Amino acid sequence: MYSFDMESPSTVADAAKALGQDEAQALGGGQTLIPTLKQRLASPSVLVSLAGIAEMKGVCTADDGSLAIGGGTTHATVAAEAGAYAALAALAGNIGDPAVRNRGTIGGSLANNDPSACYPSAALGSGATIVTNKREIAADDYFQGMFATALDEGEIITEVRFPVPEKASYMKFEQPASRFALVGVFVAKYADGVRVAVTGASEEGVYRWSEAEAALSANFSADAVPAAPSGDGMISDLHASGDYRAHLVGVMTKRAVAAAS
Amino acid sequence: MAEVTMTVNGKSVTKSVKGNTLMTDFLREELRLTGTHVGCDTSQCGACVIHVNGQAVKSCTMFAAEADGAEVATIEGQANADGSLSVIQAAFQEHHGLQCGFCTPGMVMSAAALLKENPKPTEAEVRDYLEGNICRCTGYHNIVKAIMAASGQDVSSIAAE
Ligand SMILES: Cc1cc2nc3c(=O)[nH]c(=O)nc-3n(C[C@H](O)[C@H](O)[C@H](O)COP(=O)(O)OP(=O)(O)OC[C@H]3O[C@@H](n4cnc5c(N)ncnc54)[C@H](O)[C@@H]3O)c2cc1C
Ligand code: FES
Ligand code: FES
């Protein structure tokens, strides 16, 4: 690892100021960033730990009924406390392993936007709002391809707001070595329609499967799920071909619809 | 360099650390607590699991500076005050839950965290909780059996393999 200093502010305002320094980078749970630093793929001069910022932690129901989760909330806390949105709590409780869940945060996961990560599909599949220290970003505008997001340099995810659906489910076909999703599908049924978000499959990162959304909005049943998409533009690697991933998109969507509650 | 103060296995320690000092290096090199092992250094294997404020974490994927003010527990603090093995450690010995022993500190620390959260886990819950702890020797059966036994459950029907 290259050397750097560590700062541990206790407010979002101080963290934003610290992140204004040259080559400063935020540290959430470190479950992605620390391995990256070890590989010398990042060389910040200052790491700004967000772990001591109380206002960025916790789960609560907002006035409009949506579930608000602080950007620094760990996966373990979401699993334990997001009972009001059971599919989301279950997704968080199945990320990695217990030790990873005790450190990793929702803000870190969404900021990183790994193409195989779980949370991006929940945020996009729920039409969540990503709240930062500067503005509110709709999930539909937030995800911009593999590892790419609408965040500016130094911008901090302080909260994520999830509208709570009538029914939802996340189905993850796990890549057993990494524990990430080989393919994961998040299905959520709202009064005004169904959203289907797919992670792990596309070379463009998380995306909405619009054909399935239209079919399921008309008839919310596993039989209504359209034929699997084509394998063009799907990730192909040693774990699975693009065609196989495309096939899994269909299968996992059906399972998610069947399991939605 | 920054000064950090934390409680490790009940004793307060204060040291200067660099921003990039990992918790594993702090424990092993600074405090000479070499029971915490480094297997992969990439957060996959769990040999380095310790407790920070009561929660299991992978110490290879945490900086010492992040533990400032924390209550830290390592394998060295698991035995009883008189030096005899803890219930979990004794169960690992009794049920042959280890061969080379490399993964064992992490297994014991994960098991302790599990049993605190869930005092009577099912076999499936034990296996699920150990997802991030890899053992190259035992094939896991006896580790699971040891943890079930440590939780006070009858393990006579679990096959020894
Ligand atoms: C063994 C293992 C298994 C895993 N399995 C899964 C899995 O199954 N599914 C899954 O989805 N993920 C998985 N992960 C990834 C895990 O969820 C990470 O915790 C997560 O991706 C990153 O969150 P973090 O808080 O650790 O962020 P960090 O690693 O600290 O940071 C990641 C990036 O986000 C930035 N950042 C952090 N917090 C914020 C914030 N609040 N605002 C703005 N930027 C921020 C950092 O600067 C950095 O660029 C796994 C990780 C490991 C090690
Ligand atoms: S050494 Fe930390 S997980 Fe392997
Ligand atoms: S006993 Fe050898 S790695 Fe587990």
From TrEMBL, chain B:
InterPro entries: 2Fe-2S-bd, 2Fe-2S-bd_dom_sf, 2Fe-2S_ferredoxin-like_sf, 2Fe-2S_ferredoxin-type, Beta-grasp_dom_sf, Diverse_Oxidoreductases
Protein name in UniProt: (2Fe-2S)-binding protein
SUPFAM superfamilies the record matches: 2Fe-2S ferredoxin-like (SSF54292), CO dehydrogenase ISP C-domain like (SSF47741)
One matching Pfam family: Fer2
Species in which this protein is naturally found: Thalassococcus lentus
Domain (2Fe-2S ferredoxin-type): residue spans on this chain: 2-78
Segments traversing the membrane: none
Swiss-Prot/TrEMBL keywords: 2Fe-2S, Iron, Iron-sulfur, Metal-binding, Oxidoreductase
